[in-house]
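Take a record:
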Amino acid sequence: MKDERKDTAAEILKAARQLFYEKGYEAASTREISARVGISKAALYHHFKNKEEILFKICLEAADELVGNMRRAIARNVGSGKPLKEQLTDILIEYLRTYLKNENFNKILFHDMEYLPEDKKRIILDKEKENVHQLRAFLISLMDQGLIRPINPTVMTFSIISSLHWLYFWFKPHGSLSLEEVAQEIADLFLYGMVKT
């Protein structure tokens, strides 16, 4: 019974993600969500007390996945002895795969999160900060080891993360560049710059 309830909740979140992506959070209704899942509105409210809770859960799951995957990617590269470009590329690819795997996650995080009350929005934003702190700490460790030149770590961290987030607007999964190739180019640009030496 517990597994069945968990599965139904997951189906509700899946349907809501797609509906929020198609129509936007404000225009979507719990009636439409429940219809897509094939349950009554009463059954939906058995799992979530309102639409806001559904949105919060969607944002929280996406943020937790990003934080967890970034943490694992950094952990497997710290002290690995792999070439620096290979380490950074691996971390960027892990982040991008998570970030881009479902375009509806990204639209919801970019746009619909604004409908959350401040306390819940703060939880999601704190998760995003955790990702920034993880990457910043990794980059500082590279500076401390003398592997990269001293640069303001905050500027460097936000520059990298911003370049990754912009892929949502221009990267085409079936285009001329693979995600791995894009990550390699970004890593190369940040590590070696544009000036020919």
Summary: Residues 20 and 34 are 13 Å apart (CA to CA). The mean pLDDT is 90. The two ends are 65 Å apart (CA to CA). The chain has two domains: 1-49, 52-192.
